[in-house]
Design brief:
The structure is a homodimer. By secondary structure, chain A is α+β, with helices and mostly antiparallel strands. Chain A is 36% helix and 27% strand.
């Protein structure tokens, strides 16, 4: 009875996907709500996933010559206003500080929603000559956007992210960095999180406020909705002109430099939940699982069982596997359900009979598959199993995405697909924002991206029938 | 000529200590000022020191069963006001957010100056039974205090820190954790930063707003001024009562739990500068030096020199030594001065003659001492040298502190010492805040701590002549 309680409390995915998501977030102990509306507590299990994401992403950044910095969290209003498109995009959703202690401020300041304007202010001191370029900076921080509707990890008033900001002597170098970082995000999602992504460019309607071009990676969740999982922007010299940043080039001429920015956030945790989770709870890719293995002793009160469990733990820990023994006084069945809810990739069961036979039982979280393994071989076997799990998780997510990706040559087909289901629909587009607006109004569907891998599905725009320019991925999005 | 320029621009410590400090902060590229008054940019060299501090401190936290979490950066006014002493201490220096986007907020919220109230709000959901205790949490974040006078690392409106927050079933357990974390800070300062500290308790006048007792580690800077380098607070059940947090204990009775908090911040970077720096610039302890070794090739245009420099770099990097080759087109002398300014613990010089002899020159930043070393032995030698450097840096800082620590039995002696110099003065105290106030008014000197290691210097209070209760360390402080 008790064993199933934890599981029974989860709504099934089929029944109510949104409720299933909320249930996992709560039952897997990732998040707590607070009395600060729209802001969340990252509990230890949730924050530890973020720490592992940070660690691996930061390692990749450093290998790509990125230097970490930290800029202030406040932006004076006059600074935010310098780039016209940027302020229009962000001013409606920033939090304004008007008082410092008991005194009203002379100029109000906002909590950063993103830091382009602060970096420009910084570059002005830093960049004078071609010798000062490029600068390839990043910061890990929190930002604030005053959202009306919020959901854990996906949309909250404060969220954690990294924002990279770079400045270059030429447009080409900036463009190269923009694509390099997009590729880094895509590789990270696929190799670390086991989530397949579509790489492409945003349409002008969907691009970042102030950007010349925005590139994106788009993932597809279990319910067929898209999740933008990382973006990379090329600003051209727009910000440099707005902030009057100039440098003396090799030819001794004063020029405007070119900038980029790129960001990924705690949304990635939402992506993990919705790309891999099932009706028993969270399913974590081994690379970002705070505990990769849980050892559940069976008949733990019998002599030697706990000792053996701890010996196995120590052998795994020596391989830098993150492992714990669940030696609480709960029943094994309860412990199994709890470990499944928390998404721990591998469970090891060990009881008196197993010990006698020199074996243990290994259970995979992603498939439920059980196998026996000699106790001595556990470290090798589990290490290899992590790779298999990652690959299988990726393959399943990929197969599911492919099965939810459709093509539509004409409007009728397009409308029919979106009236019946969600997913990616590949369809041609004329390039006109009017068609995007119409599709959004009629179907609540947006252009997700113009994929780098172009195909020709039809000659004409799926909306207006005029000649098509590009293949676009369309979808409903988080 | 050019070689010395960088050094000549630093004010000497003797001449103007405050200007020397500011010069180092700028010339070692740690900090930049911004158009946001009282807020700083952490440049790559400054932020990398903080990352190394974080990494090692976090490793020690995790070994002490601390779990990382992340709570919102905002506190609603009604929440801040719940604990009376706490709000009195912090309300005058918080930044108030009054608008979200275009709308005024129904209740204004402040940017966290510290997060006790948020953690209490969180505990209320988390803590119901003795089984839920203890909780041992920490978060790495930035906080805001609207200071009037600011100085890089030492006092700024926004600063980076960690704040630990714990909750326990008994007062004794809370007290034990308070002292455990103070000891962790002290060990960290001494073992990692090579800075000796005095451990003790703050007087009631100097304790944290809302705390029952505050413990501190106090370090002495080069100019004889004290720097509070980490604090740990026992709140008793004061916050639990104010926030009505209760749990059912083993005896089935409802009880108030006991709380602690403890913090260390980017001030520690200021401590490193002022405890170890000299007139040639920063001197970094090897454990937190972003680059631990710089290799300076001499006659680098000669064939084979750069190749050998890179080979040495690779051999050191294989030992996880953080190393770079300075292969810029600056002169060797300029490179030496620059590496000294940035505090890089070890410099390796390698030229054609050295290569022929199979040797390189090693120069210590802390002492300037030069020695020769066979190229093959560089990794072993340098690894061992780091330990020697750390120990020597500690010993020198300790000897300097001891030479600047005085004892005063009576008021006259006490006044004379502080009129002539700065430093720690050990003197007896009656326990009355009036004496503290008087000493502060007359000499701008505060009680730094009541040290754990008590001595009896006199029978009477250094200020009023009444019977003494405790030995106190007094000093001028940052």
């Amino acid at each position: 009875m008790q064993d199933k309680k934890m599981v029974e409390q989860i709504t099934s995915m089929e029944e109510d996907f949104a409720q299933w998501y909320t249930d996992i977030v709560k039952k897997a102990d990732l998040i707590d709500y607070t009395s600060v509306k729209g802001c969340m507590v990252f509990k230890p299990a949730g924050y530890a996933i973020w720490e592992l994401i940070q660690k691996e992403m930061d390692r990749r950044f450093k290998a790509a010559s990125v230097e970490n910095v930290y800029l202030p969290m406040f932006i004076p209003e006059s600074l935010l206003e310098k780039e016209k498109d940027h302020v229009e995009g962000f001013a409606p959703e920033v939090a304004w500080v008007t008082h410092g202690g008991l005194q009203p401020l002379q100029e109000r300041i906002c909590v950063r929603p993103t830091s382009e304007t602060l970096f420009c202010d910084f570059y002005k001191n830093e960049v004078h000559s071609y010798r000062d370029l490029p600068k390839v900076y990043n910061q890990w921080c929190s930002v604030v956007r005053w959202e009306k509707e919020t959901r854990p990890f996906l949309r909250s008033r404060e969220f954690l992210w990294q924002e990279g900001h770079t400045i270059h002597a030429t447009f080409e170098e900036a463009e190269e960095r923009t694509i390099q970082m997009l590729n880094l995000y895509a590789d990270f999602c696929e190799e670390v999180l086991a989530i397949p992504v579509i790489k492409g460019r945003k349409t002008d309607k969907e691009k970042f406020a102030g950007a010349e071009s925005t590139y994106t990676i788009e993932a597809l969740m279990h319910d067929g909705k898209a999740l933008q999982s990382g973006t990379s922007h090329n600003f051209g010299d727009g910000f440099a002109r707005a902030f009057d940043i100039q440098f003396t080039d090799k030819d001794n001429k004063l020029k405007y430099p070119f900038q980029t920015s790129w960001g990924a956030s705690t949304r990635l945790i939402g992506a993990i939940i919705m790309a891999h989770g099932d009706d028993r709870g969270l399913v974590l890719p081994p690379a970002v699982a705070p505990h990769q293995v849980v050892i559940v002793p069976v008949r733990q009160q019998q002599e030697g069982v706990l000792d053996k469990a701890f010996a196995i733990r120590d052998a795994l820990a020596r391989r830098d596997i993150r492992v714990r023994v669940d030696d609480t006084d709960k029943s094994p069945g309860w412990k199994f359900a709890e470990a499944e809810m928390r998404g721990i990739p591998v469970r090891v069961e060990i009881g008196p009979k197993d010990i006698e036979a020199g074996k243990a039982v290994i259970v995979r979280r992603d498939t439920g598959e059980k196998s026996e393994c000699a106790i001595d071989e556990l470290p090798d076997t589990i290490e290899k199993l992590f790779d298999v799990i990652r690959k299988d998780m990726y393959d399943r997510a990929r197969a599911r995405r492919d099965s939810q990706t459709y093509t539509a040559a004409g409007k009728e087909e397009f409308n029919r697909i979106f009236s019946e289901k969600s997913g990616f629909v590949k369809a041609m587009w004329c390039g006109d924002v009017e068609c995007e607006n119409k599709i959004k109004d009629e179907l609540a569907v947006t252009s997700r991206c113009i994929p780098f891998e172009q195909e020709k599905i039809a000659d004409t725009c799926v909306c207006c029938g005029r000649p098509a320019k590009k293949l676009v991925y369309w979808g409903r999005a988080y």
